[in-house]
Predict the 3D structure of the following.
Amino acid sequence: MQTARQTPVAAWHLAAPGSTATVILLHPIRGSRLTMLSRARLLHQHGFDVLLIDMQAHGETPGERITLGYLEADDVTAAVAYARRRSPAHRIGVVGRSLGGAAALLASPLGIDALVLESVYPTIEEAIHDRLRMWLGPFAGVTAPLLLCQVEPRLGIACSTLRPIDHIAAVGCPVLIMSGTEDEHTTIIETRRLYQTAVEPKELVEFPGVAHVDLMAANPALYDESILRFLRRWLETSPNSALLGDGPPP
């Protein structure tokens, strides 16, 4: 597939027999399609088609630099367009981890039917400050502005464009937000603010004692129950209806 900028996007598509829904999986920073394989297996086993992509400058997709969701948003848009072309009758869900979730929000509205956000930063200012606080403690307040001043010269992107929270109210679909209560990269307070800014229908699932790690690996039972319940509700997977429960409400 290609973006609107005519750049290629590496992808895998896993078809489930008789499926009526496609879920697009978006990896975290410095990850790739391989990072999302455990989620792909789970969703495919439960009757969903799955589309995994490498966002720009990750995996097998070319790119000069990681842009914290800005150019990666084009890859998300391309993935949704591809899923629609491949299966026009399918409902579409997106699951984004960290950078992947930020890119999905920056690309919104995508015209999809369900969105799952895992450990997603609300603003680039907070993301940088949180990381500096982990490394420098009280000196973060001094150094964060200096680092933020370098974002636009280095990436050619204004910090004002890297605010996923500004887009969440306009996603136009149900949203599930998940994060660890001990996440220092994106604090639980920031996650709760992201949730508060979203519009109904929305859900928040907190993972007790979990940091900025793979939520599925940290608490498989809570992760599997939460994501499957949410996607079962809003996406149709009729072949396994006895297993998956009811489809979306009328």
Observations:
- Confidence is low (pLDDT under 50) at residues 237-250.
- The first helix runs from residue 37 to 45.
